[in-house]
């Protein structure tokens, strides 16, 4: 398993953040009420990573977030912990040599690249 890489992970997060801002703008102005996109980001990350191992942004960046122990999906409780720490942003920047942020280490996860088709 090859780690996702910082720039690829950042691109996936920015895609997810943009989607959350667009969706949240239908019911609240993010310039006036800043918390709805953050809550939506936590919900989206919890649901998609917990059940499928990747968010829409990760899908486009060709990455998956899997359990470090068995390579499977994290499940909703661990994905929620990871999402809350990710929303704080700073834990995601504190990475170890395997490019696992504090949010990944706390949830027992790792973000890996998906190999191109045919490999």
Automatic annotation (TrEMBL):
Regarding the membrane, this protein is recorded as:
Multi-pass membrane protein
Q: Which InterPro entries match?
A: Pra-immunoreactive, RDD
Question: Any keyword Transmembrane?
Answer: yes
Mind listing the UniProt keywords for this protein, alphabetically?
Answer: Cell membrane, Membrane, Transmembrane, Transmembrane helix
Would you indicate the residue range of the signal peptide?
none
User: In which compartments does the protein localize?
Assistant: Cell membrane
Q: What is its main location?
A: membrane
The residue ranges of the RDD domain are 4-108
Q: Where are the transmembrane segments?
A: 6-26, 38-59, 79-95
Pfam families (alphabetical): RDD (PF06271)
Which chain positions lie within coiled-coil regions? none
Protein name per Swiss-Prot or TrEMBL: RDD domain-containing protein
What is the organism lineage in this UniProt record?
Bacteria, Bacillati, Actinomycetota, Actinomycetes, Micromonosporales
């Amino acid at each position: 398993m090859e780690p996702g890489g910082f720039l690829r992970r950042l691109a996936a997060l920015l895609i997810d953040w943009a989607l959350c801002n667009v969706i949240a703008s239908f019911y609240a102005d993010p310039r006036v009420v800043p918390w709805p996109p953050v809550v939506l980001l936590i919900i989206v990350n919890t649901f998609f990573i917990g059940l499928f191992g990747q968010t829409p942004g990760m899908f486009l960046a060709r990455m998956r977030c899997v359990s470090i122990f068995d390579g499977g999906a994290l499940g909703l409780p661990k994905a929620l912990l990871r999402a809350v720490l990710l929303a704080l942003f700073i834990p995601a920047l504190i990475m170890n040599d395997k490019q696992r942020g504090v949010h990944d280490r706390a949830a027992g996860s790792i973000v890996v690249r998906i190999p191109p088709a045919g490999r």
